[in-house]
Amino acid sequence: MNRKIESILKGKPTLEGAGVHLKRSFGFNEVPLLDPFLLLDDFHSDNPADYIAGFPWHPHRGIETVTYVLEGAVEHGDSMGNKGVIQPGDVQWMTAGRGIIHQEMPEGHNGHMWGLQLWVNLPSTHKMMEPRYREVKKSQIPEVMIDKNVSIRIICGEFGNTKGPVQDIVVDPEYLDITMAPGSEFEHGIKRGYRAFAYVIEGSGFFDADKKKSTGIEHLVIFKDGDNVKITAGEKSLRFLLVSGKPLGEPVAWAGPIVMNTQEELYIAFEEYRNGTFIK
Prior knowledge:
Order of helices and strands: EEEEEEEEEEEEEEEEEEEEEEEEEEH
Domain Pirin N-terminal: 20-120
Protein name: Pirin
Domain Pirin C-terminal: 175-278
Family: Belongs to the pirin family.
Structural class: mainly beta
Shape: globular
Largest sheet: 7 strands, antiparallel
InterPro entries: Pirin, Pirin_C_dom, Pirin_N_dom, RmlC-like_jellyroll, RmlC_Cupin_sf
């Protein structure tokens, strides 16, 4: 059964970090609409003043953050000693677990900067897991072509017999970057019961079999349950992210960069951050 569209959200202008202007497709107000996903931010600008202040040192606990760079670069540093710069096509998949402090500083290329960040929730059994950091280079991400009309970059999950480089993630996510030629069609199976959404980054297209309404850039399509999605590109090429994962169905206690299951756990996390015992 083809998945139908449940709702379509448009990114809302938001100020984050030390003054980064971005578009937030979903976040705190949408919980638990996209369980196990918490937030998707699109920081996209040709004006360095919109992003150069970046996201200075801050803590995370209880979640994973996934940063995908399309233009420019993002410099990363964290309390585990990791340092690096992710370039266009690279991905940073960071599991905060029991606690990490890091910074992410955008660097434009000829003024251009474009990055996306997704937050993935961790279940109560893994909230306090060992933190880990994965830097995935563009060259490590496999790309599959279908009839020269559809290109699929597999960051996490699998398409056919091809698996993405990010594996062993608790909520069993799939994260695909898909580009379609004008008028082409794409069909992909998604596990029944899993939450799924698409985020349009170029062009426009139809995100269900009925093809009643075209959806364009900076819009997020939330799918109803079903066995697969069927997508048709519009008159121009279409590029979008297709993301799915297994819902947790657990209470969400969220304050700033920390997401736990109870208010008491939140209080403990911030108290530990204040007294210097946050990093275990």
